[in-house]
Each structure stands twice: as C-alpha cells, then as structure tokens.
Amino acid sequence: MLRARIAGTGSYLPKKILTNKDFEKIVDTSDEWITTRTGIKERHIADDNESTTDMALIAAERAIDSSGVSSDDIDCILFATVTPDMNFPNGACILQDKLQTQNCIALDFSAACTGFIYGLHLANSLIATEQAKNILLVASEKLSSITDYTDRNTCVLFGDAAGAVVLTSSDTSQGILGSYAGSDGSKRELLKREGGGSRLPYNKMGPFDYAKLYLYMDGKAIFKTAVQRMTSSLGFALDKAGKKLEDLDMIIPHQANLRIIEMVREFAKLKEEQVYVNLHKTGNTSAATIPVALDEAIKEKKLKTGDILGVTAFGGGLTYGAAVIEI
Ligand SMILES: CC(C)(COP(=O)(O)OP(=O)(O)OC[C@H]1O[C@@H](n2cnc3c(N)ncnc32)[C@H](O)[C@@H]1OP(=O)(O)O)[C@@H](O)C(=O)NCCC(=O)NCCS
Known about the structure:
By secondary structure, the chain is α/β, with parallel strands linked by helices. 33% of the residues lie in helices and 25% in strands.
C-alpha cells in the first residue's frame, strides 16, 4: 500500500516581533496575564507588503530544498489558509508560478487551525490512489491582516507564519500511518470572520459592519471543545494507524494555548519533553503552527527517522483532526 512520506520540511517566521510588553502599550493587558492564560511571550508579524503567498514561497522553497525532490517533480500543491492573498486566483496557483512547477493540481482549502491536518489527510489519499506522487503541502497565515489590535481578547493570541512539507509516495512503513478529519458546523459562530464574503460584501457594509472584517472568537467556549476534540481525534488517528498512545515518541499539538497543550499531554500520558512546544515565540499561527513546529523539531534533531509522531489540531468551523506519522 502506498502512503505519503515526509521528504522535506521548511518554515518561515517574519522578522518583526511583537512582545507581550509591546502589547501593554497597545491594549489594557499585561505580560503576566498573557503568559499565565496562554503561555505566549511573543509573535512574529509580517510587513505590510509581505503577503500570505510571499511567506508560503519561502517555506515551500526550504521544504523542497531539504526534500531531495526537484520542484519539476511536484505534481500537486495543497495550500491551507484562512488569510489568502485574494479570493482568487488561489494561493496554490500563485505558488505554482513562482516555483515554476509543472502543470499540476493546485488547490487552496480553508479549515482554519486544522488546515495542515486536513492537508495531510487529503495528501495521503491522493498518494494512496496514485493521483499524485510528490505533493507540496503549505500552510501560511497572515492573521495580523484580520486581527483587531484594539481587542485585547484576541489580538494578543495570534501571529503570522508559514510552514511547508514535501510529501512523496512511499511503499514502506515510513509516512502517514493513519489520519482523521472531522467537523461540527453547528458551532461555526464560535470562531469566525464574517465580513468580506458574499453574505456581507464590502460594498454592502455599513459603518457598524466594519468590525466583522476582523476575527471574532468566543475563547471560553472554544477552550472547552478544543481539548475534547484534539484528544478524541488523536485516538481515532491512532486506531486507523494500528498504534496505541504508548507507541508515540512525540506529539505536536496545534499551538493555541499552553493550558490546552498541557491537557492534551496529560491525556496522551506523555512526558514534557515528548510534546513539542514553540507557542511562546510564535503565538497561534492557525494552520501554520504544526508544520512550523515540525520543521523546528526535525532541525533540532528532536525527531529522527523511525520515530512515531502524533499531530492533532482544532479550529474554526469547527474543524478538528489528527494524524500519526512514522518519520
Ligand atoms: C482566550 C483565552 C486565553 C482567555 O482565557 P480565559 O481564562 O478563558 O479568560 P476569560 O475569558 O475568563 O476572561 C477573563 C477576563 O480577562 C479579560 N481579558 C481578556 N483578554 C485579556 C488580555 N489580553 N489581557 C487582560 N485581560 C484580558 C477578559 O475581558 C475577562 O475580563 P472580565 O472578567 O472583566 O470580563 C482562553 O479562553 C483561550 O485560550 N481559549 C481558547 C482560544 C483558542 O485556542 N483559540 C484558537 C482556536 S484554534
């Protein structure tokens, strides 16, 4: 049976950093509040002229360089984002042009913070059914472009980043062993950006509608569902992989809140060093958190060939999912 193997990883964090101390000057907050409630210390913010695909391109080039796969051989680009450069053309086509890859499948999809996991799930199916051989999966988010920097409830949480992997066809045990993706649209009001789409287009907006161009979140309600969905998704992915919690060498959970990560770690009965955390220096970068953390964990040699990795995420939609991967 064919499966998708991770052949290369890459990531990009913009240069500009906003620290908790910087936020003390912007909104009524404190380093102490942000650190104890979230674990976040700083986040990277893209320049005004730096778009989601600009960041994606750098992460993608780094992933391709480290993969041993030529960009000529990429036959599918999957692009997870909720902050695309524009409605269309999609980011995958922009990347295809900039990377000069061949005629290929070029698809953007929106699954918020679960975007990367949805991408792994899709990529594994495309490779298993021989619809693609070498897939570039990119997750890139410029959340600063939809963040209200006067709203202390949300602005301290989010950052900008891009992460990418090259997935290649494998007939060995190396690769995605099992994955799960799910949704609960009845809770879609908990995390959303309502304005700017066909329901509320820019040219129909009144002055009271402008706030709807920013991300809205009911943090408390999200928190409760996040832990339950991330842990159950990981359980489903383990079942599909024919693995157990004790088989996991490491997990990389979606980096949204350290308290959520701690609860997932307790569920998985893992030691602290088996759970990769970089949230303190990135904040929540939506779909990009897991591929950025994965790239760092591999570069820091915290993950090695043969290790069994669990990734699990949760996000707006609501969406959730997990995957179990042999590195
Ligand atoms: C957002 C979150 C950090 C808030 O933490 P919390 O412990 O639930 O805090 P509460 O919502 O109870 O808010 C407590 C108080 O802090 C205030 N507060 C909110 N943001 C604040 C900030 N940045 N600085 C200081 N105070 C803040 C609130 O206004 C509230 O004040 P009030 O009691 O006077 O109304 C937390 O709910 C969370 O992380 N939720 C999940 C978010 C998430 O993961 N989203 C992404 C999903 S992919």
